[in-house]
Amino acid sequence: MPDRKASTLMSDLHLTTLVDRAALGRRAKLLATLSVAYNVVEGVIAISAGIAAGSVALVGFGLDSAVEVSSGLIILWQFSHVMPESRERRALRLLAVSFFALAAYVGFESARALITGAEADHSRVGIGLAIASLIIMPFISYAQRRTGRALGSNAVYADGTQTLLCTYLSAVLLVGLVLNATLGWSWADPVAGLVIAAVAVREGLEAWSGEGCCVPTSSQTCTDGCCG
User: Fold this and answer.
1) I need a surface site. Which of 78, 135, 164, 193 has the fewest CB within 10 A?
2) How far is CA 39 from CA 43, 132, 189, in A?
3) Closest by Cα among 74, 2, 6 to 35
4) Where do the domains of the chain lie, and which CATH numbers do they carry?
């Protein structure tokens, strides 16, 4: 009799766990969709405003939004599989390539702007966009990382970390644009671009090597080989 009760209890707990994970999986996909939608709008505005103002940092920020979009799409692609963990290593490598491409473009353009002395025009649209991202993105990042921890999902947690990076880059972009607009420090724009490029290289290297991809939980260990 006790054995039967114990078996029933274990079955109920297992069922509850499956239901909880299904709900968390739906939440992860919802957050990824929200992130993709926001970053598409952010990227279009940033690149358009950056081209209009000749701002390397603003264009670079828009391209980073494209990387964020790819990150969200990777989550949606990964969770469409029966075993999402099997796609994790490939997803991280694809993301790393995107970061390297971003760093190469922004780094080159920023260096060229510093050497040639090219000056960016003021961009009120860019300043407003950076402020909006500083307000919105931390909430999305927190929800993504919390869901990733609950799921024990390396990819979902990493996606939240990428969103947090977008918040930091928003701050860097805002400083560069404000200094250029208020003090006429045109060099602040390409310097901000170089900071964005450096951060992109670091994130790309970490994604390629799989560093930080394992999410520690009380009941799970990394079993997908992402840290090996």
Assistant:
1) 135
2) 6, 12, 21
3) 74
4) 18-209 (1.20.1510)
